[in-house]
Amino acid sequence: MVNDTEELVIYKYSWNTRYCGFASSKSAAIEGVKKHYLYGEPEENENETVLGTQWAETQDEEGWRVEPHTIHAVKILGDLRGSFARKETVHLIWQCLECNQYFSDDAKEDIVSPVLVTCSCRKNEKFYLVEFERGGNGE
Ligand SMILES: [Zn+2]
Predict the structure, then answer these.
(1) Residues 6+ apart with CB under 8 A from 36
(2) How remote is the CA of residue 38 from the centroid of ligand 1, in Å?
(3) Residue 55 forms beta bridges with which residues?
Protein backbone atom coordinates (compact mmCIF):
# COMPACT_ATOMS: atom_id res chain seq x y z
CA MET A 1 0.00 0.00 0.00
CA VAL A 2 1.34 3.41 -0.94
CA ASN A 3 0.40 6.21 1.39
CA ASP A 4 -0.46 9.67 0.12
CA THR A 5 1.76 12.52 1.12
CA GLU A 6 0.86 16.12 1.75
CA GLU A 7 3.13 19.11 1.36
CA LEU A 8 3.02 21.34 4.42
CA VAL A 9 4.88 24.27 5.88
CA ILE A 10 5.94 23.78 9.48
CA TYR A 11 7.77 26.12 11.81
CA LYS A 12 10.83 24.67 13.50
CA TYR A 13 12.18 26.39 16.57
CA SER A 14 15.68 26.23 17.89
CA TRP A 15 18.14 27.85 20.27
CA ASN A 16 21.05 28.77 17.99
CA THR A 17 21.65 25.48 16.17
CA ARG A 18 19.99 23.33 18.83
CA TYR A 19 16.70 22.11 17.37
CA CYS A 20 13.95 22.11 20.01
CA GLY A 21 10.67 21.35 18.25
CA PHE A 22 8.16 22.27 15.60
CA ALA A 23 4.62 23.57 15.25
CA SER A 24 2.14 23.97 12.44
CA SER A 25 1.96 27.77 12.67
CA LYS A 26 4.40 30.53 13.52
CA SER A 27 2.40 31.64 16.56
CA ALA A 28 2.19 28.06 17.84
CA ALA A 29 5.97 27.75 17.41
CA ILE A 30 6.50 30.91 19.50
CA GLU A 31 4.21 29.41 22.16
CA GLY A 32 6.25 26.20 21.93
CA VAL A 33 9.42 28.15 22.66
CA LYS A 34 7.88 29.89 25.66
CA LYS A 35 6.75 26.56 27.11
CA HIS A 36 10.02 24.80 26.32
CA TYR A 37 12.02 23.58 29.31
CA LEU A 38 15.10 25.41 28.06
CA TYR A 39 13.30 28.79 27.88
CA GLY A 40 13.87 31.12 30.84
CA GLU A 41 16.15 33.72 32.36
CA PRO A 42 19.21 31.85 33.71
CA GLU A 43 19.88 34.38 36.49
CA GLU A 44 16.28 34.41 37.74
CA ASN A 45 15.92 30.70 37.60
CA GLU A 46 17.36 28.13 39.95
CA ASN A 47 17.06 25.64 37.17
CA GLU A 48 20.41 26.19 35.48
CA THR A 49 19.55 24.28 32.35
CA VAL A 50 17.55 27.21 30.92
CA LEU A 51 19.29 29.03 28.10
CA GLY A 52 17.62 32.42 27.85
CA THR A 53 14.62 34.31 26.57
CA GLN A 54 16.08 36.49 23.82
CA TRP A 55 15.16 36.08 20.16
CA ALA A 56 17.84 36.05 17.48
CA GLU A 57 17.23 38.64 14.80
CA THR A 58 20.15 37.79 12.58
CA GLN A 59 21.82 34.53 11.66
CA ASP A 60 24.81 35.28 13.95
CA GLU A 61 22.91 36.41 17.02
CA GLU A 62 22.45 34.14 19.98
CA GLY A 63 18.88 33.31 20.84
CA TRP A 64 15.68 31.59 19.87
CA ARG A 65 14.62 31.44 16.24
CA VAL A 66 11.59 30.16 14.37
CA GLU A 67 12.06 29.14 10.75
CA PRO A 68 9.57 27.82 8.18
CA HIS A 69 10.33 24.52 6.45
CA THR A 70 8.44 22.79 3.69
CA ILE A 71 7.94 19.11 4.47
CA HIS A 72 6.17 16.16 2.92
CA ALA A 73 4.09 14.36 5.52
CA VAL A 74 2.91 10.81 4.91
CA LYS A 75 -0.76 10.20 5.67
CA ILE A 76 -1.41 7.31 8.02
CA LEU A 77 -4.32 6.10 10.12
CA GLY A 78 -4.18 6.30 13.89
CA ASP A 79 -6.39 5.13 16.69
CA LEU A 80 -7.73 7.35 19.46
CA ARG A 81 -7.99 5.24 22.63
CA GLY A 82 -9.59 6.21 25.91
CA SER A 83 -12.63 8.24 26.77
CA PHE A 84 -12.74 11.98 27.38
CA ALA A 85 -16.30 11.57 28.64
CA ARG A 86 -15.15 9.10 31.31
CA LYS A 87 -12.18 11.39 32.22
CA GLU A 88 -9.70 8.79 31.08
CA THR A 89 -6.25 9.58 29.75
CA VAL A 90 -6.68 9.50 25.99
CA HIS A 91 -3.89 8.48 23.66
CA LEU A 92 -3.41 8.67 19.93
CA ILE A 93 -1.80 5.42 18.80
CA TRP A 94 0.15 5.43 15.55
CA GLN A 95 2.94 3.43 13.96
CA CYS A 96 6.02 4.65 12.11
CA LEU A 97 6.19 3.07 8.65
CA GLU A 98 10.00 3.17 8.64
CA CYS A 99 10.91 1.51 11.93
CA ASN A 100 7.51 -0.01 12.86
CA GLN A 101 7.68 1.51 16.34
CA TYR A 102 4.33 2.26 17.93
CA PHE A 103 3.76 5.63 19.56
CA SER A 104 1.18 6.53 22.16
CA ASP A 105 0.88 10.30 22.35
CA ASP A 106 -1.21 12.01 25.00
CA ALA A 107 -4.30 13.57 23.42
CA LYS A 108 -6.17 16.59 24.69
CA GLU A 109 -9.90 16.95 24.41
CA ASP A 110 -9.61 19.55 21.63
CA ILE A 111 -7.57 17.18 19.42
CA VAL A 112 -8.55 17.42 15.75
CA SER A 113 -7.71 14.98 12.95
CA PRO A 114 -5.20 14.94 11.33
CA VAL A 115 -2.33 15.44 13.78
CA LEU A 116 1.21 16.10 12.57
CA VAL A 117 3.76 13.89 14.32
CA THR A 118 7.33 12.84 13.76
CA CYS A 119 9.58 9.85 14.31
CA SER A 120 13.30 10.46 14.59
CA CYS A 121 14.34 6.99 13.50
CA ARG A 122 16.07 8.33 10.38
CA LYS A 123 18.62 11.08 9.95
CA ASN A 124 16.02 13.10 8.12
CA GLU A 125 12.98 13.50 10.30
CA LYS A 126 10.01 11.59 9.03
CA PHE A 127 6.68 13.36 9.40
CA TYR A 128 3.25 11.77 9.44
CA LEU A 129 -0.23 13.20 9.29
CA VAL A 130 -2.21 10.89 11.54
CA GLU A 131 -5.87 10.71 10.64
CA PHE A 132 -8.28 9.26 13.16
CA GLU A 133 -11.95 9.12 13.95
CA ARG A 134 -13.66 10.54 16.97
CA GLY A 135 -16.96 9.29 18.23
CA GLY A 136 -16.03 5.63 18.30
CA ASN A 137 -14.06 4.07 21.12
CA GLY A 138 -12.33 7.38 21.55
CA GLU A 139 -15.35 8.98 23.16
ZN1 LIG B 1 10.40 5.52 12.92
Answers:
(1) 13, 20, 21
(2) 25
(3) 64
* Strand pairing class (79-81; 5-15): unpaired
State in Å: Cα 124 to ligand 1 middle.
Answer: 11
Q: 115 alpha carbon to ligand 1 midpoint, in Å?
A: 16
End-to-end CA distance of the chain: 29
Expressed in angstroms and rounded, the spacing between residue 5 Cα and the centre of ligand 1 is 16
Q: State which H helix or E strand residue 109 sits in.
A: none
Q: From edge to edge, which strands make up the β-sheet containing 115-119?
A: 18-23, 5-15, 64-77, 126-131, 115-119
97-127 tens-digit pLDDT: 999 999 999 999 999 999 999 998 877 778 9
Q: What is the 3-state composition of the chain as percent helix, strand, coil, each rounded to the nearest 5?
A: 5, 45, 50
In the chain, what are the domain boundaries?
A: 9-69, 78-138
Tell if the pTM clears 0.70, that is, is over it. Answer: yes
27 CA to centre of ligand 1 in angstroms = 28
